[in-house]
Amino acid sequence: MKKLFFILFTSLLFPQENTQYIDGVAAIVENHIILKSDLAQMINMAAIQRRIDPRTSPEIFIHLQNTILQSMVDQKILLEMAVLDSIEVGEKDVETALDQQIEMLIAQAGSEEAAEEMLGQSIKSFRREFWFDMQDRLISEKYQQQLMNTVSVNRGLVRDFYKTYRDSLPVLPLKAKIRHLLIPIDPSASAKNETMDTLLKIKSQIIDGGLFADFAAEYSMDPGSSKKGGDLGWVKRGSVVKKFETAAFTLEEGTISNPVETEFGYHIIETLEKQGDKIKVRHILIAPEITAEDNKRAFNLATSYRDSISSLDDFKKFVEKHSADESTREIGGDLGWLNPENYPVPEIGQAVKYIDMNSCSPPINSSIGFHLLWLEGIKKGGRPNLKDHWPELEEMALNKTKMDWYQGWILKAREKFHFEIKQ
User: Fold this and answer.
1) 389 phi and psi angles, rounded to 5 deg
2) What is the pLDDT of residue 14?
3) Residue 293 and residue 185: Cα distance in Å, rounded?
4) Who has the most CB within 10 Å: 191, 202, 273, 376?
């Protein structure tokens, strides 16, 4: 195993130069062979995700290697069992899972180039080589999930779980069930027209030979893409706001749109390349200037709505008719149970401690507009107890029971199949 570690260790240190030396068999499960190269690929991904550097943490890396190898063996056993039960997954599910895997690797590595360096191959090559591995993984996970769906817990088991682990259970955050009605702060018509004129002039200059990237760096108000020439990289359907998505996906490659209005402002968009449900796209965003008069107008409108709301039914009706949040408009503005300490719109989280239960709040100002909030419920935080946190304890007990059950099941399953881990 130390020899195998050395091969994998050097592949992580020098991925481009030494990948060709990774070969041979790491393990055999029935008729399935686990290649050292496939094992190295899985370890590379895990090392990226967990930020483990084999040069500074060799012992942790060896443990990771052993864990992943056993996991790959168990996956092959699950795959054998899944085939017997005719478990299948669709190609679209594989593509979606592969997209998510690649996006996570790039995010954790810091960039596509860094991810490719750690993987020792291009993202395109990785996608091609890992496709069938991902299919096998999804099949085995689907079978594993079906097995564990048969596991359940009763009230007595939850109480026993709490009694055993009460001193080591994590502290739970306070949760609040919130609904909101969003009133955007709209700029004046003159400010909108001025912004559109500016973007149309920029578009004209680009068509006449100006560089899109230069204009994006100078004018775009999108901090995430302006320094990259407006480049958003590959964008999937459903990952950007609807109006932007509609415009970007209907553009011909290499053409620049007229100004497109979204809740963030106005964009000119260029779609560079299309691949099925993905496009490579860049944009320039300019938001019209918001004045004190615009703020006052939105505040007064929000206040007038609040004065007309006296019940939850009223609130839901006003949300359906007036809220600018398309994602929650049809569900009464429901944001679900949220942690006020880390909610993406901090002003909503901060307001929880100041607003009354089951009544419409005053207008709450945030970076995206004014919110009317309806606080439906509070779940206490702190150390879990049976009175206040039964659903959470039930879920913890179920997860622990499933994990224990699966460990016992896989130990017995290993006895039914021939497998050999090579040294």
Assistant:
1) -130, 35
2) 40
3) 10
4) 202
Strand partners for 270: 256, 282
pTM over 0.70: no
Going along the chain from its start, the domains and CATH numbers come out as: 2-150 (1.10.4030), 175-186+291-379 (3.10.50.40), 189-286 (3.10.50.40)
Report which residue type is found at 234.
W
Distance of alpha carbon 131 from the chain centroid: 20
Residues of the chain with pLDDT under 70: 1-23, 423
Check residue 423 and give its pLDDT. Answer: 58
SS (H, E, C) the chain: CHHHHHHHHHHHHCHHHHHHHCCCEEEEECCEEEEHHHHHHHHHHHHHHHCCCCCCCHHHHHHHHHHHHHHHHHHHHHHHHHHHCCCCCCHHHHHHHHHHHHHHHHHHHCCHHHHHHHHCCCHHHHHHHHHHHHHHHHHHHHHHHHHHCCCCCCHHHHHHHHHHHCCCCCCECCEEEEEEEEECCCCCHHHHHHHHHHHHHHHHHHHCCCCHHHHHHHHCCCCCCHHHCCEEEEEECCCCCHHHHHHHHHCCCCCECCCEEECCEEEEEEEEEEECCEEEEEEEEECCCCCHHHHHHHHHHHHHHHHCCCCHHHHHHHHHHHCCCHHHHCCCCEEEEECCCCCCCHHHHHHHHHCCECCECCCEEECCEEEEEEEEEEECCECCCCCCCHHHHHHHHHHHHHHHHHHHHHHHHHCCCCEEECC
Per-residue pLDDT, 23: 59
Return the pLDDT at 268.
97
Adjacent-strand bridge partners of 271: 281
Burial class (CB in 10 A: 0-12, 13-18, 19+), 164: exposed
Question: Which amino acid belongs to residue 355?
Answer: I
Residue 246: how many CB atoms within 10 A of its CB?
Answer: 12
Q: How are strands ordered across the β-sheet holding 260-262? A: 231-236, 278-286, 265-275, 260-262
